[in-house]
Structure prediction request, 54 residues.
Amino acid sequence: MVQAKKIALIVVIVFVMYTIIASPERAADLVQVGFEGVSSAAQSVGDFMSALVN
Prediction:
């Protein structure tokens, strides 16, 4: 089972590296979307906590 996890991790890393090298613009867009999603989620949690305190 451990070997399968290692192989899966290596495959994912190789895929990410290939994507970055083959299409850096697309990879940058995906990273930006990811960071925007995390930022939006953090803002929503902050708004929720502020509403609870008030």
